[in-house]
TrEMBL record:
Top-level taxon in the UniProt lineage: Eukaryota
GO molecular-function term, one example from the UniProt record: aspartate-prephenate aminotransferase activity
Keyword Transferase: yes
One Pfam family cited in the UniProt record for this chain: Aminotran_1_2
InterPro entries: Aminotransferase_I/II_large (IPR004839), AspAT/PAT-like (IPR050596), NHTrfase_class1_PyrdxlP-BS (IPR004838), PyrdxlP-dep_Trfase (IPR015424), PyrdxlP-dep_Trfase_major (IPR015421), PyrdxlP-dep_Trfase_small (IPR015422)
Annotated pathway: Amino-acid biosynthesis; L-phenylalanine biosynthesis; L-arogenate from prephenate (L-Asp route): step 1/1; Amino-acid biosynthesis; L-phenylalanine biosynthesis; L-arogenate from prephenate (L-Glu route): step 1/1
GO biological process: aromatic amino acid family biosynthetic process, prephenate pathway
Organism: Glycine soja
Cofactor(s) this protein requires: pyridoxal 5'-phosphate
Key words, A-Z: Aminotransferase, Pyridoxal phosphate, Transferase
Protein name as catalogued: Bifunctional aspartate aminotransferase and glutamate/aspartate-prephenate aminotransferase
Family: Belongs to the class-I pyridoxal-phosphate-dependent aminotransferase family.
Presence of keyword Transferase: yes
Domain Aminotransferase class I/classII large: 89-421
Length: 433
């Protein structure tokens, strides 16, 4: 591990039922890896271009598209799909979603919306019924007050984040992102012609941002700090005291805003508690709070999220949405109202899921700690484990070749262990800064 940069081979493991078998498969695979020495296997990919016209076509793309890095996991995902279709029993843990059904009262609300003909366009920012329910939730659960015109409902929290970045960032601005991070954050910054500035964290610090490092990296171009707590992919939860330190630094820089991604707020394990950044003194005017329904309420396919913040910024997000997608699904919005009606923090339906996630976390943490060379920071929230397998770098595997980095480790575990869960793997090297 480097002094200032987390440089391990890492992967994100969702806490699903299949995960309980996962640690056994990985353990066998890594034990086999420790014992083998053999030659390399190469992977070749060919692209064939063909022409269907005698006319010349300008094939140039927007600089924004060219600025976005292609996903390193696409080839691995395709390989996993091919194996699965060929009948290989691949354990697939790649999707960042609960393996529970949407709670029955929420599903029934969606079904009733269809039966009652509630299938037309809604206002661009979302129905008044839902935005009022969101305002009540944020006041009662998060201690932050908004009015419906300070909330925009979107097709998922991902859309809310992308629109926020586009709304506040100008070419040349900097977006500060603690690493490890959800892979979409820096690419959203690039799409806005902004520059992602990656701040490394240490596994020994539970992957929490060092305020002194943050302060040293803020410049006159710093426009947005993205915080995700509980974190995807690490499961780290920012304690209130640390957030207060960060808030004091943010307060010194008038241009700096904070995007607080709180999509995992209800999936949290005591004694950890969630603090909304906008609830801290002086931070309401500086914070864009993003949340949604996909994770805690097992509603990933319903595609519904929202952003809340000062009207000036949220209205800009709404303007972008009006030209991109318009309003979110009317059916999903009715279901979301029912979700917010389940009780504090989602009531019994959500607490039952969280209990299961915690049991899985405890089992997997114990299991992985028994595997030689694996480093782990025990997650306090979300439903992932973020594991460091860098101990296995440089080793040769029979019939495969050398394990060079996290990407080749993922390929090895897929081919030998028949485990695919690595859509979030990362190596945090200097090239990422």
């Amino acid at each position: 591990m480097a002094n200032t940069l987390y440089n391990g081979a890492t992967c994100r493991i969702p806490l699903r039922d299949e995960s309980l078998a996962f640690s056994r498969h990985v353990s066998r695979s890594l034990s086999f890896l420790l014992k083998t020495r053999a030659g390399k296997q190469s992977y070749a990919f060919a692209v064939k271009a063909s022409s269907h016209s005698d006319f010349d076509v300008d094939l140039s793309l927007s600089p924004r598209v060219n600025a976005v890095k292609p996903s390193k996991t696409v080839a691995i995902s395709d390989h996993a799909t091919a194996l699965f279709q060929a009948g290989v029993p691949v354990i697939r843990l790649a999707a960042g979603e609960p393996d529970f059904d949407t709670p029955a009262p929420i599903a029934e609300a969606g079904i009733n919306a269809i039966r009652e003909g509630y299938t037309r366009y809604t206002p661009n920012a979302g129905t008044m019924e839902l935005r009022q329910a969101i305002c009540r939730k944020l006041k009662e659960e998060n201690g932050i007050s908004y009015t419906p015109d300070q909330v925009v409902v979107s097709n998922g929290a991902k859309q809310s984040i992308a629109q926020a970045v586009l709304a506040v960032c100008s070419p040349g601005d900097e977006v500060i992102i603690p690493a490890p991070f959800w892979v979409s954050y820096p690419e959203m910054a690039r799409l806005a012609d902004a520059t992602p500035v990656i701040l490394p964290t240490l596994i020994s610090d539970n992957f929490l941002l060092d305020p002194k490092l943050l302060e040293s990296k803020i410049t006159e171009r710093s426009r947005l700090l993205i915080l995700c707590s509980p974190s995807n992919p690490t499961g780290s939860v920012y304690p209130k005291e640390l957030l207060e330190e960060i808030a004091r630094i943010v307060a010194k820089h008038p241009r700096l805003l904070v995007l607080s991604d709180e999509i995992y707020e209800h999936i949290i394990y005591a004694p950890a508690t969630h603090t909304s950044f906008a609830s801290l003194p002086g931070m309401w005017d500086r914070t864009l709070t993003v949340n949604g329904f996909s994770k805690a309420f097992a509603m990933t396919g319903w595609r519904l999220g929202y952003i809340a913040g000062p009207k000036h910024f949220v209205a800009a997000c709404g303007k972008i949405q009006s030209q991109f997608t318009s309003g979110a699904s009317s059916i999903a919005q009715k279901a979301a109202v029912a979700a917010l009606g389940l009780g504090h923090a989602g009531g019994e339906a959500v607490s039952t899921m969280v209990k299961a996630f915690r049991e899985r976390r405890d089992f997997l943490v114990k299991s992985f700690r028994e595997i030689d060379g694996v480093k782990i920071s025990e997650p306090q929230g979300a439903f992932y484990l973020f594991l460091d397998f860098s101990f296995y770098y440089g080793r040769e595997a029979e019939g495969f070749g050398k394990i060079e980095d996290s990407e080749s480790l993922c390929r090895y575990l897929l081919d030998v262990g028949q485990v695919y869960s690595f859509n979030g793997f990362k190596d945090f090297s200097n090239s990422d800064i």
